[in-house]
Amino acid sequence: MNLTKGIFKTVFQQRSLIWQLARYKLREQYAATLLGSFWAVLQPLMTILVFWFVFSYGLKLQSPNANEIPFFLILFCGLVPWMTFSEGLSAGTQSILAHQYLVKKIVFPLEILPIVQIVASLVVHLYLIGFLFLILIFYGIWPSLYSIQILYYIFAMAFLTTGLSWLLSALNVFHRDVGQSLNLIIMLWFWITPIVWPAKNLSGWALKIVEANPLYYIIEGYRSTFLYAEPFWHNPNMGVYFWTVSISMFIIGITFFRRVKNQFSDVL
Amino acid sequence: MMSHEIVIKVENVSKMYKMFNSRSDQLWEALRFFGNSLAREFWALDNINFEIAKGMTVGILGQNGSGKSTLLQLITAVLQPTAGQVSVKGRIAALLELGAGFNPNLTGRENVVMNGMIMGLTEAQILEKMESIQAFADIGHFFEQPMKIYSSGMFMRVAFAAAIHVEPDILIIDEALSVGDAKFQEKCFRRFRNFQDEGKTILLVTHDRSAVPRLCNRALLLHKGKLVEFGTPKRIVDLYSNILATGDIIESKSIAQQAKDDEEITTVFQENIQSLVEKDDSSNELLRNFKAPGDSADRCSLRNSYNNNEYRYGNNQAKIIDYLLVNNDLQELTSIECGEILNILVKVHFSQDIEEPLVGVSIRDSQGVLIYGLNSGWLHCQLPSVLAGTSQCYKFTIKMNLKPGPWFLEFAVAKTQSELCDIRSNIAHVEVIGGAVSFDGLVFLESKLEILS
Q1: What is the pTM (predicted TM-score) of this model?
Q2: How far, in Å, CA of B185 to CA of B136, rounded?
Q3: Do B281 and B412 sit in the same domain of this protein?
């Protein structure tokens, strides 16, 4: 428990450094491109369009309540958090390797590096949320008071990603296999999460598995915020389960990270 | 400006590196609570103790692998000591390795911002100093280019400029300056002086032995992870030279002990006296006595100009057993007028056969800075080979065009340029007194002034 001490203080003290690093990271990523940071938004939007086309026209998949909410919106609300989560997690896992110049021969609070990546992915996320609002308005769904609770779900998602990233980024320093296998895991995770298919099709043990996935809470949270207009306290069991998993992950992540971080400079 | 306030205190510090067979072992070691260690141990530093007061400029000397970098990393808290304690007062700016803390994909300007923020400055504070940093780095339009295209000199300029502008209390530099060109080095040294005047503390790792007495007022020497000594730059440079020459610290026995030892092994020697350059002066008693065959006992300490604080090292295959400083009238002297000729006579006893031995003299100032040095090899004098058990006298003639003040002589005899038999540093002290010429600086370069019509 000692190793988790002061992590919030560190993050708060280093907030301007985190922000600066995140800004430079985004700039660096698109430095050699003509369209610049437009790529950050273009790529996820194209993905959404492709999925929408394939499922709506290719497979003729329909929304379960066909007369209520168009399938496209359900898909959009699921893909937006998913893409931010997967981007944040894979960038977070690579964060120590990507910032080797801050690991060796310099005193630096390495704990903030995964957070930098997550903050950078959240910047892109805000653009996507903005886009989501536009699409919703296009479909005649106007922002309501419930829309504010998106902040809660964004925080919940970032919190879960941070804990996971601490664990994975530290492991990745020792064994690059972690980063490699993560791509595979993220792909599987995508399909077992009800993003492009509705969870309501499932029952019994299959539903239990889906509900054990902490991301289910986030995805459904986004949908209830924008589409179903349900408050986040509507599903307390899921909430308690999500936070139990996330907080445990957070503590495991930071403890593990701090336990092994002195070894980083020797291994890199 | 030195004060008595201790800013860096290193107490019983040891650093052990663990070496692993694989990364898995290393990860497991960091996590395990019990069981046997999977590591092999390597002690990079062993029980180091010293204190550095505010305002000191400390040179850190030692061979590669002696633990210098580890020590600096412990002081900057990049590494944690395995045992002991390091306490530091004040903000440290460190240039430990070129590239540490700099993102090669960002421009010089962006990296300066980042670096300042890592050092705990706010963005506004950094931007305020940006103009001055840019001017100091002086790399033109490269400042706006990604640092990956920089030369190592440009990289260093930006790193150094950033380091000195974060207003550190302690500045730590690990050999980084050596990549700068002469002009930039000069600028850095001027900055060093400012730092010293402001009472700030500087730690400097260097292999440049002449830089230590010039820049530092203290020095410390590390050898194989141990602190050999913390003392005056002159003394430490001598010790370091000893290590470089002999590979270890082999301090010659004390002069008295030496003389006693020599007496014990005194036998009859075949004397063979010859000198490099010599007038017929057998009439002079002083010279006759000097050249007279005798035992191999050390008589250096009997000379008036002998310096008690001499520093001696070498492999003892030959020994300098006597010397004489005389003017052209063959009078022994301890002071000489600027511009006069100094004759240096050195008597060497050989305990091994040596083919074409080398003898040399050099002159240092009171801070240990080498002003002038020469040896028979550089003079293209092939000295005749010598036999074990013989003694030989040599004479150097030097025009003492030096600034009035104290000067120290070093005599050396060697088998080859790298096999040093006997080095007696600061063995003699000569005072140069003002002569007919006046000048500024250390040496008079025989100049003339004419009016062109």
Answers
A1: 0.71
A2: 12
A3: yes
